Amino acid sequence: STPPVNVTVTGAGGQIGYALLFRIASGQLLGRETPVRLRLLEIPPGLRAAEGTALELEDGAYPLLHGIDVTDDARAAFDGVNIALLVGARPRGPGMERSDLLEANGAIFGPQGEAINAGAADDVRVLVVGNPANTNALIASAHAPDISAERFTAMTRLDHNRAVAQLARHLHVPVRAIDGVVIWGNHSASQYPDITHATVDGRPVTDLVDERWLTDEFIPRVAKRGAEIIDVRGSSSAASAASAAIDHIHDWVNGTGERWTSAAIVSDGSYGVPEGLVSSFPVRSVDGAWRIVPGLAIDAFSRERIDASVAELVAERDAVRALGLL
Ligand code: NAI
């Protein structure tokens, strides 16, 4: 029988954790043949909530769930880890400057990177969900010198899924008919949802939508969807974020075939994105690794938007470097 895969979820007592863990336990992350062992990492104020979630996981009597540990010790949480979902992060508090936010999160993702470096399995895959996700992934990776930077990724799949869904709705087609949507850059309001390469059943989307809808409705809607959810739901996206995290890891492990998706991965210099930045690209997953879709023509409008988001990533990187976090 297949040995269990060690999956560690940080911030397990939070709202994304609550939406994520039951899906992992039921087999939606890795398939219904693969048993999992869950490790839930929290900080002391979140431990009780994580323990409560662990009790409910037990009550699910999931045949694939081979054990649950709850801890506030990062070394224990990441020992032998195959899949690390880094969800817990420090939210922006009142009066907090951007540099304060980066520093507070550096204090989380630096030590977690070290713990992953010390104990992770050779095939470890890391997905950072906690914001600022791209730069948190960069920090964690920098603290894990023995692990390939390709193994540290950040989540833009929620943005990607939002873009696909908005397009499908506008064009009255099933989501499955759409391919070739790209989220470029940072998981922030500066992100660029690009449909210039998108197709609907093989037809270019650019033949089907007008430019005003694209610039005035689609792009801001996708980029500001998080705020819309908070406004309507009364709290931030949780189940959709958990769902996107499942999609990201599922595709990374199982492959995408020819279809594209979006993921923030370490740049190899493609598309003018400075090497080493963790930036969102059009990707396929092949043989268990993300590959940037090569050779796309980038028009002037796209170039400007990509450059603006990448400039924000460079500024975040420079700020954390100045703080000694890289
Ligand atoms: P939440 O506040 O409900 O839960 C976060 C949990 O993380 C809390 O229980 C907290 O105790 C824990 N935590 C804080 N520091 C920790 C540490 N050092 N180690 C382990 N656990 C720690 O927040 P929620 O809604 O679950 O969101 C989590 C993060 O995901 C936030 O940073 C949010 O901005 C981000 N997010 C990212 C998205 C993306 O698309 N990349 C989408 C939605 C949310």
Structural class: alpha/beta
SSE string, helix = H, strand = E? EHEHEHEHEHEHEEEEEHHHEEEH
Strand order of the largest sheet: 3-2-1-4-5-6
The quaternary state of the protein chains shown equals single chain
Mean pLDDT: 97
CATH topology of the largest domain: L-2-Hydroxyisocaproate Dehydrogenase, Chain A, domain 2
The geometry reads as globular
Query: Which CATH top level class of the largest domain fits?
Result: Alpha Beta
CATH architecture of the largest domain: Alpha-Beta Complex
Distance between the termini: 42 Å
Number of helical regions: 10
- Helical residue percent? 40-55%
Beta strand count? 14
Please outline what is shown here.
The chain has helices at residues 15-25, 44-59, 74-78, 98-119, 133-142, 157-171, 211-223, 225-233, 239-254, 300-322, and strands at 5-10, 36-41, 65-71, 83-86, 125-128, 152-154, 178-179, 182-184, 192-194, 199-200, 203-204, 261-266, 278-286, 289-292. The protein is of the alpha/beta class and 326 residues long. The strands form four sheets. Strands 3-2-1-4-5-6 form a six-stranded parallel beta sheet.
